Amino acid sequence: LQRMLSMAVEVDKSPTCSSCKIADVIFPFILNIPLRSQREAFLNTMDSQLLRCKLLELLFQHSCDVPTTLPLSLAKILYFLSHSSVLLQYQAETATWQKWDEMLQYLSLLLLSYQNVVLAFLLAEHLRSSLSDRMDLIIQKAKPKLQDDDDISPLDIRLKIEDFISRMKQVLGQPVPLEIMDKLCMLR
111 in a domain, yes or no? Predict the structure, then answer.
């Protein structure tokens, strides 16, 4: 299934567009997966970094009270850290901190996937271009443009993480568990 999804993304004239279309179809099914282990298995085994990014972006947009119109970028990932909640409808009965732990796990996965797409883009692999256009872009040595929203400072990161920690203390009514602090360190 994952290989077929990856090929479906690649055969379109615009891989970005096809990943959006496929993610829109798959997303409701992701919401209905009852176990964290099943959701993680599905997301972790995705071949297409673009499709994984889009699915995770949809998941976080769904969990935000106020969705953002920012394009997928480091700034948007920080926005998700500050504004996401745990709204997976069919999450198995687990402790509240474990639901937040899962959210941070997916945020880290989104960051890694996004970095892979950007890195491939910077290496002139042009994942966002069709297969037929990639060769021309590579031959022309076309340089990709980074987004302005990818220019974030260490201060931005620190403030968003501090905001998240204070929100966690308020939600949990106790100190933030070590597992969540570890995930935040990894995300940082």
Answer: yes
Q: Which amino acid makes up residue 90?
A: Y
Number of structural domains, the chain?
A: 1
- Angstrom distance (rounded) from CA 49 to CA 28: 19
As a whole number of Å, the end-to-end CA separation of the chain is: 32
The domain containing residue 124 runs over which residues?
17-187
Q: Is residue 7 part of a domain?
A: no
What pLDDT digit, counting tens, does each position of 121-151 carry? Answer: 554 444 455 555 555 655 565 555 566 788 8
**Cβ partners under 8 Å of residue 156, min gap 6:** 75, 78
Nearest Cα neighbor of 31 from 71, 4, 58 is 58
Rounded to 10 deg, the angle between the 96-122 and 49-63 helix axes is 140
Asked if residue 12 belongs to a domain, the reply is no
Exposure of 37 in the CB half-sphere (CA atoms within 13 A): 1
Which residue's structure tokens are 């941070």? 104
CA 186/CA 188 separation, integer angstroms: 5
